[in-house]
Amino acid sequence: MRIIENPARIEWNKLTGRQGVDYEGIRTRVEAILEAVEKDGDSALKRLMAEIDKVDAPLEVSDTEVSEACNKVTDAVREAIIAAKKNIEAFHQAQMPKEVRVETGKGVVCTQRPVPIRRVGLYIPGGSAPLFSTVLMLAVPAALAGCHERILCTPCRKDGSVAPEVLFAARECGVTRIFRIGGAQAIAAMAFGTESVPKVDKIFGPGNPYVTLAKQLVSGRNTAIDMPAGPSEVMVLADSSTPAAFVAADLLSQAEHGKDSTAVLVCTEKDYAATVLAEVEKQKESLPRDAQVDGALEHSFAVVFPTLTDVIDFAEAYAPEHLIIAMNNAAELAGHITAAGSVFVGPWSPESAGDYASGTNHTLPTSGWARSCSGVNMDSFMRKMTVQELSREGLTSLAPTIVNMARAEGLDAHARAVTIRIEGK
Fold this sequence. Notes:
Structural class: alpha/beta
Shape: globular
Distance between the termini: 76 Å
Oligomer: single chain
Low-confidence stretches: none
Strand order of the largest sheet: 1-11-10-9-12-13
Radius of gyration: 25 Å
Mean pLDDT: 95
Helix content: 40-55%
């Protein structure tokens, strides 16, 4: 990681830009996968499983397999999943939207009613680190929202099995059906439906560039997605009131996600920044995912500004997925933040807490999308439907307004729908 001292604001656009993902380089392959699955359904999924995963196994995970896998989960992990689920449920239950009912005029009642999305698809990354915590983050609010069907897709391992922790978490959260399908083909299966995989109404969950591009492509057709997504990232605002070892650990916890992850340190003292980066080098030696860490640190950096105003303004310009504020008066500074996926306040609030068990959701906007998008929450799994009921008196009182507006727009049939009721013509 390099240290950048007091960059001019004209340079901020470059610093806050993200490392580009070469989606064009994989677009042809992803489009071919989507087309194959849409056309050939299960047979395409089986071909792709043999070609990519080198596995021949049933697409759907059976109840027997789930039960057997759950028995392999250690007691410590079981207890951790159950404890985390409890906190996630508590926080998300408090977010449940309520019906809004307003009498806008005498005899005119308007209602906004929250209704669950009927069938949702949950994508859980596998690979080198199966993210069973993401099962909790997606399946818990889906269940609370009342989504009738919760379909889960996740890559299988080399022997064709699915990580037991993923299956245990899925069972605990009441996932309806589970499929050992990963990559762009999983997104295609949930978007288009196959003989085995139901077509869903909305797809949730992070993934590699193939998954991300597939989600973007199907969202332009017939299936909603949770949010735009890119490589994971963290920004840490820190000063010497927080031990350098804490900050280094936070930066590394993000870097180990993968080579395309980014970790950024922002502070007001160059000596402190240097101390943190030295601690990063020291701590990374003991991490097993060294290739991922080294790759991420190559494009990560530290920025030193002269004032806290600059620090906050730069954080706002960057709009990070995760923002840790480990400084004096952290809570006060957090009050000035408006663009971040999730904020962690104070030296005892590592990003890991939100990733697993504090109760907030870890499915968050990346790549600057935090300026305009929220992370996954209860609203993500619901739609807002409006209902209106007018009495004769209510329609009569509104008739002049409706008729005059409709005729001014040249929509005479709209006007007649009112006058035929009020005037009989």
